[in-house]
């Protein structure tokens, strides 16, 4: 196990790891995380509103909010990626008469799927001819521009709401490198670690998918600085859950850091097996491999209902 942990840590040189301050700045900046991709159907730039060119449309896509842009336009995009903290929500925040905060929708315009139906009038919305109509980044509701004022202003957060830590619950990062939090009701906070090197680009796909489903501040790449920053940020949540998406070596690495931080009594660990070397996940009933990132909402629902077993590391493991 120690050899596996050492091999994982040496996967990148020290100079390639993000420093904690850089990762925190990235979480709070609202910047888009662009990657080059192609699109099989007409797709439009959210910056200049013109179509992406080519028979198979080529352009940039944000791995978190799925905003689309030409390469030349990506640098001009407003830093309005998926919210992480209360400050990033800004003027859109909803406050009732008693001062309680509620989560609003975060809308992104256009590029809706062909099967899109308006949540208000139940008619087809979106267009392949122009940038048109809206999609919420959290609950996935889609609405016509004309119907949007008629849609409820509070966002229900969608099918993964039990696991989501809403931005309205995260105020800032305190002096002890932990979130200053207001624990939301009916929420079981989930911290996700993904090994982006697992499988043939499998880890990268799962990393992106988790950021789309949850608050991006809940999801960390083990190959970008390890598990320590995520654990420190979440230490004000007691209890909370951890999902490790990788093999036995990564699980051992996270468990070792939990021991060092004396957090064994406040977190439960689950394993989503990626790549090879998944004996622990197999023994605990999570299977030998998981290669379908589109099934993640159902996997998270299964994890929410899981019972716990004690291991000899004194860490609770849902199974």
Structural class: alpha+beta
Any idea how many domains? 3
Which consecutive residue ranges, at least 5 long each, have pLDDT under 50?
A: 1-5, 7-19
First-to-last CA distance: 21 Å
- Total strand segments: 16
* Overall residue-averaged pLDDT value: 86
CATH architect. name of the largest domain: 3-Layer(aba) Sandwich
What name goes with the CATH superfamily of the largest domain? Answer: Probable inorganic polyphosphate/atp-NAD kinase, domain 1
Largest beta-sheet characterization:
4 strands, parallel
Describe this entry's structure for a reader.
It is a single chain. The chain has 319 residues and is of the alpha+beta class. The protein has 3 domains: 32-78, Wheat Germ Agglutinin (Isolectin 2), domain 1, CATH 3.30.60.20; 105-152, Wheat Germ Agglutinin (Isolectin 2), domain 1, CATH 3.30.60; 167-318, 3-Layer(aba) Sandwich (Rossmann fold), CATH 3.40.50.10330. The chain has helices spanning 2-9, 20-29, 71-74, 86-89, 202-213, 228-233, 248-260, 279-283, 296-304; strands spanning 34-39, 57-62, 68-69, 94-95, 101-102, 107-109, 134-136, 142-143, 170-173, 179-181, 190-194, 219-221, 240-246, 267-273, 308-310, 316-318. A hairpin with a 5-residue loop joins strand 7 and strand 8 (142-143). It is globular.
């Amino acid at each position: 196990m120690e050899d596996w942990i050492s091999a994982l840590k040496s996967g990148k040189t020290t100079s390639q790891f993000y420093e904690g301050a850089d990762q925190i700045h990235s979480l709070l900046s609202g910047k888009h995380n662009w990657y080059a991709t192609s699109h099989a159907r007409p797709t439009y730039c959210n910056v200049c509103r013109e179509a992406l060119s080519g028979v198979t449309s080529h352009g940039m896509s944000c791995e978190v909010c799925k905003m689309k842009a030409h390469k030349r336009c990506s640098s001009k995009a407003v830093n309005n990626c998926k919210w992480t903290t209360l400050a990033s929500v800004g003027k859109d925040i909803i406050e009732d008469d008693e001062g309680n905060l509620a989560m609003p929708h975060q809308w992104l315009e256009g590029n809706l799927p062909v099967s899109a139906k308006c949540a208000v009038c139940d008619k087809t919305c979106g267009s392949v001819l122009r940038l048109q109509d809206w999609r919420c980044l959290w609950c996935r509701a889609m609405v016509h521009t004309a119907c949007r004022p008629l849609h409820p202003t509070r966002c229900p957060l969608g099918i993964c709401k039990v696991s989501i830590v809403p931005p309205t619950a995260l105020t800032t990062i305190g002096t002890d490198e932990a979130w200053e939090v207001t624990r939301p009701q009916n929420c079981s906070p989930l911290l996700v670690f993904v090994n982006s090197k697992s499988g043939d680009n499998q880890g990268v796909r799962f990393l992106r998918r988790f950021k789309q489903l949850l608050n991006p501040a809940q999801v960390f790449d083990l190959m970008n600085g390890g598990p320590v920053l995520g654990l420190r940020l979440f230490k004000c949540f007691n209890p909370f859950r951890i999902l490790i998406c990788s093999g036995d070596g990564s699980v051992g690495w996270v468990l070792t850091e939990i021991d060092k931080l004396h957090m064994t009594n406040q977190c439960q660990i689950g394993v989503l097996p990626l790549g090879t070397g998944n004996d622990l996940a197999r023994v605990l009933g999570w299977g030998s491999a998981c290669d379908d990132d589109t099934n993640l909402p159902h996997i998270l629902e299964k994890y929410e209902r899981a019972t716990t077993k004690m291991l000899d590391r004194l860490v609770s493991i849902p199974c």
